[in-house]
Fold Ferredoxin-like protein.
Amino acid sequence: MIQIEEKLYQNRYRVDEGRPHIKIKNRETCTLCYDKSCTVLCPAGCYRKNETEEVTLITDGCLECGTCQIICMEHKNIQWEYPRGGFGILYKFG
Ligand code: SF4
Ligand code: SF4
């Protein structure tokens, strides 16, 4: 059976260096967020939780699915935009 990592590897990205299209507004809010669903539900694993419960976000492999924006509705702690034209995911290889 094909693993999700193999599927994701089929994608290509053009990273807009220094201009992430998604940002965490307030890191302190994340430490108080009980289940930190973004660290489990992002299909690309862009959100990570460390041993001190800090949440980090690296958007380079983002699929632009919008899931994190929905699951953070309660805290409204994500600033979400599509990447600028010409940047982001290229699905044609997948
Ligand atoms: S769901 Fe929102 S508030 Fe909770 S950890 Fe993720 S980004 Fe932070
Ligand atoms: S838009 Fe989707 S792939 Fe991108 S960071 Fe949010 S949940 Fe992950």
User: Anything to note?
Assistant: The two ends are 16 Å apart (CA to CA). Residues 4-9 form the longest helix (6 residues). Residues 13-57 form one domain. DSSP finds four helices and six strands in the chain.
